[in-house]
Amino acid sequence: MDKLEFKAAITVDETGAITGLAWPFGSADRVGDIIEKGAFRSPAHLPMLFAHDQAQAVGIWDSIAETPEGLQVKGRLLVDDVARAREVRALVREKAVTGLSIGFVTKTAKARPGGGRTISALDLHEISIVAVPCHPGATITTIKAATDGTAHSLKESTMDPELKNDPATDPVVDKKDFDALKARLDKLEAKSNRPIAANNNHPAADNDNGEAKAFSLYTRRGVEQMSAEERKSLTVGVSASAGYLAPETFAAELIKLLKEFSPIRQYARVVTIGAPETKYPRRVGSPSAYWVGETANRTASQGSYEQLSIKPHELATFTDVSAQLLEDNAYNLEGELQQEFAEAFATAEGRAFVLGTGDNDNQPTGLLVNGDIAEMITGAAASFPATNPADVLITMYHKLPTTHAQRGVWMMNRNTLATIRKWKDSDGHYLVIDPITAGMPITMLGRPIVECLDMPDIAAGSTPIVFGDLQGYRIIDRIQLQVLRDPFARATNGEVRFHARRRTGGDVTHPDRFIKLKVAAS
Predict the structure, then answer these.
(1) Highest mean pLDDT range out of 51-65, 168-182, 220-234?
(2) Which of 91, 12, 24 is nearest to 59 (CA)?
(3) 316: which strand partners?
(4) Would the pTM count as exceeding 0.85?
């Protein structure tokens, strides 16, 4: 295989969406290479690396296409799941990193006079975000802010000073002039898209849409103060199409119900693997030491070990959406679908990390299911707890070794927390302490309380409270959330199918770091 070569352009937003020009056609890079249009061969998805480091995968390229300008790419920085991706996004936003570089294997090339090559065929292997690209024209172009959706231009070059564009031949447009021109074009486009009344007798103005004008008059003067023509325009909005008169901003909001997730992933140890499973050796027995005389025989001892295997399991679903709805919706429906998939998967995996029944049911092994975690049994649910509340929780706290207890958290759902909040010690002080500083967690016995909505309520035989160091629970990620757009499977029905999948797993690696409080069965 030929040497992997690095060529180099991009845009990114707060949510991690990123676009750019990975290779501009028609010009040579710094070593004299030119890649011809039509030369690129690549899979549908490519890994997004930082600085060509295989250990720093920060996202995925979802779209790779040749345009007249060059190789246009679109992808996602996995800012919700990969810490390094958030750091890279910050570097790009601050213009510390503004280039793209491609890694490929040359298939067909010929030498150029004066040095370099003309490459007519290559296999694209990866595209990296870099500080200084090999091609002077390959740079990051825009960053979209999540707050307002505005694309911010990155005109500064990451090249050496002597390689910057010549202002005489490649002038930079002033940003204010560009924004003014863009605003005018947006205004003209909006005006051209507005429906015109049949009589076309209204004056041209900023708000020269007949229906919008009638709506405005109605809100200011009422129907009795409107002319016949204005009323006629208003009647377009009766029952069957009542929203037609309202400006688009009146309806361009999607109302969604609140979803909550168990926060186990935020506290547990999370690792990414590249194999069907990962194995951890675990010590289950330790050597012993014996007191002996000066010349007495010594006694042998040795530790014993076992092996813990954790497998990633697959979460998957799909949704069918009509092609017309995708074309006509005003809510960025594909983006909403991706967010809905992410929330659904987070809900399912959060529950599995607490209550999952393991490999036999193709899901992670939950914290409460592990049989090696010690438990305390307290009084029946009707008199929970049977003894002084403070005594029960203090006993739980001191059941763990000091090192683990000092890193421990209390896990319970909101209903249990409501009960615990009413408990007091023998001096009449509440056990649950609200934070003095905003943003800090509530605490009990000096340790944070983590609300896990998947923890069970107080009931006979249930385990409503766990105390422990969540670093003793291991989560493995094999494949991050992937959404595949399939326009073919349901094409005869005028629908597009969106497939979503993810592979993740989890299990307790250190049961000695936890203790469970169990309610007596009767």
Answers:
(1) 51-65
(2) 12
(3) 501
(4) no
